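Q: Got a minute? One more chain.
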Amino acid sequence: MTAPVAVTARSQRWLRAIAYGLLAELATIVTIVVIVMVHRYVLAKGLGDEYYAAFGERVGGIVGIIGGTFYTFLFAQALMRRLSANFVAHGILLAIVAVALSVGGSIAGHHGVPTGYLIASALKLAAGAFAGFQAAKSPAQATA
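A: Always. Here it is, folded:
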């Protein structure tokens, strides 16, 4: 029988960054789905499938870029409150996880990576790094 592996506090911080990256991308996806469903079943009932598909593409492109960046920054800020060091690295790891999920989903769904995904990826990386940079400069984080 093997003894359970102890998870150190340091590794928990890195695992938390990964989990927050997953949550950031999941929040983006849920936001897109909610907007599309509300539009289809509440605001614009009875239109053709082609219209809804085109609308979904537009919403995905806009919310994927703006919402993905927003949620990456939001979850990175939440993560920063739980850290005492390596803020920028944790923010970038969180963003890398979100980028990996979105690019992976794009390859699976679109069989490629549209330009919008590349822009969203760069913005997510910037958002994660910026949240970390902000936390590193914050006097409150220095005493945490």
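A: The chain has one domain: 20-138.
Q: Perfect, thanks.
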